[in-house]
TrEMBL record:
Transmembrane parts of this sequence: none
Pfam families to which the protein is assigned, alphabetical: Thioesterase
Residue ranges annotated for the Thioesterase domain, each copy included: 23-244
Name listed for the protein in its UniProt record: Thioesterase
Record GO biological process: lipid biosynthetic process
InterPro entries assigned to the protein according to its UniProt record, in alphabetical order: AB_hydrolase_fold (IPR029058), TEII (IPR012223), Thioesterase (IPR001031)
Family: Belongs to the thioesterase family.
PANTHER family registered for this protein in UniProt: S-ACYL FATTY ACID SYNTHASE THIOESTERASE, MEDIUM CHAIN, THIOESTERASE
Taxonomic classification: Bacteria, Bacillati, Actinomycetota, Actinomycetes, Kitasatosporales
């Protein structure tokens, strides 16, 4: 894949960070965009080369077909990520992004190169615990109500009905990819997993998040934060501190 195409998939918000010794690949939630990780990228500065995924079918990629199957999404994202695998990478995925991160680590570990250092799986049940309601089958009004109830979308955006309805195809495709995903094998990654959870997340239980432990042959840790599904926004400093420690190996588990 060309460098131009890779840059379309993965956005860098801190100029000069590409010289950092490690990369942090961030993968947004269903309906999310690369911009969700701008605060994290700026907080980390040049300590890591933060790349945030921009999935097709939204914003400046809105004319591209959406991808509604997790395997196909992982294949396309991995193809775009290849030029960035010249140094160790950590992956941080929130909600649907955590499942995508898991599938990307599988592909990275099967490819030559330094490999994956760690997976941060945030706000998502473990792959072996796939299931739950099929939100992607809801009609438009109920799907919009579901999004409003999660507090993950800016109120100004939610109040713009035309904008929200134009985004529905991408949102529905993302939900379908996440909700129809099934892990058919007992897969364990060779890198450690840090699972993050909101204590009052209505979408996933702590037991479902804790089950990520069965998907690694290396270390596992679970961090629980006050808040719901989008708890990250309320704990930015703590999460930046955690990521920084793991980036530089200052804490061992």
């Amino acid at each position: 894949m060309s460098t131009e195409k890779s840059a379309l998939w993965f956005r860098r918000f801190v100029p000069g960070a590409e010289e950092a010794p490690v990369r942090l690949v961030c993968l947004p939630h269903a309906g999310g965009s690369a911009a969700y990780f701008v605060p994290l990228a700026h907080a980390l500065g040049a300590r890591a080369d933060v790349l945030a995924a921009q999935y097709p079918g939204r914003q400046d990629r809105r004319r591209e077909p959406c991808i509604d199957e997790m395997g196909a999404l992982a294949d396309a994202a991995f193809d775009a990520l290849r030029p960035y695998l010249d140094r160790p990478v950590l992956l941080f995925g929130h909600s649907m992004g955590a499942t995508l991160g898991f599938e990307l680590v599988r592909r990275i570990e099967a490819a030559p190169g330094p490999g994956a250092v760690r997976l941060f799986a945030s706000g998502r049940r473990a792959p072996a615990r796939a299931g739950g309601p099929l939100v992607h089958l809801l009609d438009d009004d109920r799907l919009l109500a579901e999004l409003a109830g999660l507090d993950g979308t800016d109120a100004r955006v939610l109040g713009d009905e035309e904008l929200m309805r134009s985004a529905l195809p991408a949102i529905r495709a993302d939900y379908k990819a996440a909700e129809t995903y099934r892990l058919t094998d007992d897969v364990r990654l060779d890198c450690p997993i840090t699972a993050l959870a909101g204590a009052s997340d209505p979408k996933v239980t702590l037991d479902e998040v804790r089950a990520w432990e069965q998907h690694t042959t290396a270390g596992f840790e679970l961090r629980v934060f006050e808040g719901g599904h989008f708890f990250l926004a309320g704990h930015r400093e703590a999460i930046v501190r955690l990521v920084t420690e793991r980036l530089h190996g200052q804490a061992r588990i």
